[in-house]
Specification:
The complex is a heterodimer. By secondary structure, chain A is mainly α. Chain A is 72% helix and 1% strand. The two termini of chain A are 48 Å apart. In chain A, 31% of the residues are buried. By secondary structure, chain B is α/β, with parallel strands linked by helices. Chain B folds into 2 domains: 32-146 and 285-354, D-Maltodextrin-Binding Protein, domain 2, CATH 3.40.190; 147-283 and 358-383, D-Maltodextrin-Binding Protein, domain 2 (3-Layer(aba) Sandwich). The A-B interface holds A 49, 52-53, 56, 62, 64-67, 71, 80, 84-85, 88-89, 92, 147-148, 151-154, 180-182, 184-185, 264, 266-270, 275, 278-279, 281-285, 288 and B 1-2, 5-6, 8-10, 13, 76, 78-79, 181-183, 188-190, 234-237, 243, 246, 249-252, 360-361, 371-374, 376-378, 380-381, 383-386.
Chain lengths: 316, 386
């Protein structure tokens, strides 16, 4: 009953810290503003601001005569971007990103399924370690290692030779687009390294999605006479799709932007990232480099829009 | 927001354009060292014994002059130009494609050769070289230079050096009986167009190419066509010296344009690799130590320029980098370079080297030439199979 003796509105407390605390308690919106302002300013000015400054550059052009940048609004840089050579680069990058994504999904699904459904105890730990371990070592070291593995006189050729399967490798390398002088100077090599490097980014989201699929749904499906294939087709796959789409965002966008793998393993044909680097770093053609960076932004924008409609972000 | 960005861009521009107009007067006399010196340099150009303690030409300089040296390494000429434009550095080791741009942009100042006693010891072939001398005024002291040689595998060529660059430009059967297809490489930089032009200079005289860096539309087109043929022979283009070495070891590559640096490294490993200067001559690079227009430590900078010309330093740098000294005396009696070093690195082949420079629209040998930025985009196209 003594509680009633205290006034409903407490008297103001002494000390600046207490007053500040009271002030914020009375004005909760202000507190939110103060807490959110620094990260928002960072995002708005440092991150988006520099991005816009870059995009703005793509509307300038380079003067053919002097090589200096002409600071007047023009779309001529975009006309240049749509030239045959540059369209080749864009098409090459997008196709590579798409194949890498599909292959990663196909390889990652069974691994993730095993980890989510069957692995227990220390096996689960081992699985996590196995997936994460490659991410801990240096990206460059991994790529250089792959260059050696795929080389003409490398271990892979040696294994094929020992197994008397060298005709298979030679046959593959003599194919038009995917072939080349050796695996490490062909698109096949670039593809293999891309899949290797980005695979963990696909496995983890799929595994998370599969873990959320209730086991009784699968049992119900087989109780109702569904074959394993039907269960996969109509129950498991649709429920795991958001995870696959989430993983594909990583593999697709990372492949779109990478400029180191195709430089070390591949046929020297440029990918978007390398084109940006060459135009900006070597040619000093910043407008064209900026226009090139717009391409992955547009592609990823469309991709994310589609991913959202497929429910990839529902689980976030 | 957009308006603000525009203003910001405009502001940056204005600041950039209204660069202080400095009187381009060289230093009259040498004072005391300022205690500090910052240099923009290629990796491996300024060594203080951190990689290999035998290669150190900084520690002694610091002891003698009290100028503490700090080095900013740059990977490309464009990066060097950008750093110098930014300012805050005293010296730069600029290649021929950067040096004239720096002079034109007034980022470097003329030097007073009287303050550099060793100036007269410089190889006469370098003293008035056009990549650092403009209208008779010297904008720096020569550092080292080198040719882009043809590196080849002795086994594939049966011990006989290829006589022409055609082994990397045209399909043919090599002395070991196999085609050169997929076994040659080319430099992954637009400047390689000049190598093609250099080849055409000799083999298609009707094109009238006088200078491989000054090409009109027709000559340029012919060079690109040659490079398109080359694309069918090349598996991978090289731009990293270590990757090229790896390709010669593991990828079955037997011939490529290269630097003495790679050749020396592989010869040291006792691999069957050698280099040659084919009949068409070669392209090459020559670097100059240049002084920033607004250098804060000009006295230390002059001391370094003098130091950099001493036979010991010249010889050591040349040995380290596979380059040639600009001071003839460095060729004899240097422990690291050895007496054979200069010959190995191409010291006697100066006349055969067409030194690197940036292709510009207004060229000396003819009316109008194809500028560098087109070399860049077209070379990308050629590699991409266009």
């Amino acid at each position: 009953m003594t509680a009633f003796a205290e006034p409903l509105v407490l008297p103001e407390r002494r000390g600046p810290a207490s007053r500040l605390s009271d002030f914020f308690w009375r004005h909760p919106h202000l507190l939110l503003t103060v807490l959110l302002a620094p990260p928002l300013l960072w995002l708005g000015i440092v991150y988006l601001g520099s991005l816009f400054a870059l995009l703005l550059q793509s509307f300038f052009s380079i003067d053919d005569f002097s090589g200096l940048i002409n600071y007047e609004f023009t779309l001529s840089t975009y006309r240049q971007l749509l030239s045959e050579t540059n369209l080749d680069i864009i098409l090459r990058t997008v196709l590579m990103a798409a194949t890498v994504t599909v292959a990663s999904a196909v390889i990652a699904f069974p691994i993730a399924y095993y980890a989510a459904r069957y692995a227990q105890g220390k096996w689960k730990v081992l699985f996590y370690l196995g997936v994460m371990l490659p991410l801990w070592s240096s990206y460059l070291v991994k790529i250089y290692a792959w260059k050696l593995i795929l080389a003409k006189e490398g271990i892979l050729t040696w294994i094929f030779e020992k197994l008397h399967l060298i005709w298979l490798l030679d046959g593959w390398l003599s194919l038009p687009v995917v072939g080349g002088n050796s695996l490490s100077v062909s698109y096949t090599g670039t593809f293999i390294v891309f899949v290797y490097v980005w695979l963990p980014f696909m496995i983890l989201p799929i595994q998370a999605a599969l873990e959320r699929v209730p086991g009784n749904l699968i049992e119900a499906s087989s109780d109702l006479g569904g074959t394993p294939a039907q269960t996969f087709r109509f129950v498991l796959f649709p429920l795991a799709l958001p995870g696959i789409v989430a993983g594909s965002i990583f593999t697709f966008s990372l492949t779109l932007g990478d400029y180191i793998i195709p430089q070390i393993v591949g046929s020297s044909r440029l990918f978007i990232g390398q084109a940006v680097y060459a135009q900006q770093g070597t040619a000093g053609n910043i407008p064209l480099a900026a226009a090139f960076t717009v391409v992955p932004i547009v592609i990823m924008g469309a991709y994310l829009f589609m991913a959202k409609r497929m429910g990839a972000f529902d689980a976030l | 927001m957009k308006q603000m960005l525009k203003s910001c861009t405009a502001l940056t521009l204005t600041l950039g354009l209204v660069a202080p107009a400095f009187a381009q007067e060289p230093l009259k006399e040498l004072g005391k060292g300022e205690g500090e010196l910052s240099i923009v340099a290629w990796a491996g150009y300024i060594e203080r014994g951190e990689t290999d303690k035998n290669y150190d030409w900084v520690t002694n300089f610091e002891k003698q002059t009290g100028c503490k040296v700090s080095v900013k390494t740059a990977a490309t000429s464009d990066e060097m130009v950008a750093l110098m434009n930014e300012g805050g550095f005293d010296l730069v080791t600029a290649s021929g494609d950067a040096s004239l741009r720096l002079v034109a942009g007034k980022r470097v100042q003329p030097i007073n050769t009287d303050l550099i006693p060793s100036w007269k010891t410089i190889d006469e072939r370098m003293q008035n070289a056009p990549w650092h001398t403009v209208n008779g005024v010297h904008y720096g002291v020569p550092y080292v230079w080198g040719p882009n040689v043809l590196m080849y595998n002795k086994d594939a060529f049966k011990g006989e050096a290829p006589k022409s660059w055609n082994v990397v430009f045209e399909e043919m059967t090599l002395p070991d009986g196999k085609s050169n297809k997929g076994r040659v490489q080319a430099y992954d930089g637009p400047i390689h167009v000049a190598d093609a032009a250099n080849y055409l200079m000799k083999h298609k005289p009707e094109l009238g190419i006088k200078d491989p860096y000054e090409l009109n539309e027709d000559q340029y087109k012919a060079a690109l066509d040659l490079l398109r043929t080359q694309r069918t022979l090349v598996g991978r283009y090289w731009h990293d010296a270590m990757i090229q070495i790896d390709d010669f070891k593991n990828e079955g590559v037997v011939a490529s344009g290269s630097w003495p640096f790679q050749v020396n490294l592989m010869e040291a490993e006792k691999l069957p690799i050698a280099s040659t200067i084919p009949e068409e001559g070669v392209t090459g690079w020559a670097d100059t130590t240049m002084l920033h227009a607004e250098s804060q430590h000009p006295n230390c900078a002059y001391m370094w320029m003098e130091h950099s010309l001493s036979p010991k330093v010249q010889g050591d740098v040349s040995a380290w980098f596979g380059a040639n000294p600009s001071v003839g005396a460095a060729c004899k009696g240097n422990e690291l370079l050895t007496d054979a070093g200069c010959k190995t690195n191409g010291y006697d082949d100066f006349e055969k080297v067409k030194f690197w420079k940036t292709p510009v629209t207004k060229c000396a040998s003819q009316g109008e030439c194809v500028p560098y930025h087109r070399w860049v985009s077209d070379y990308i196209g050629v590699i991409g199979g266009r």
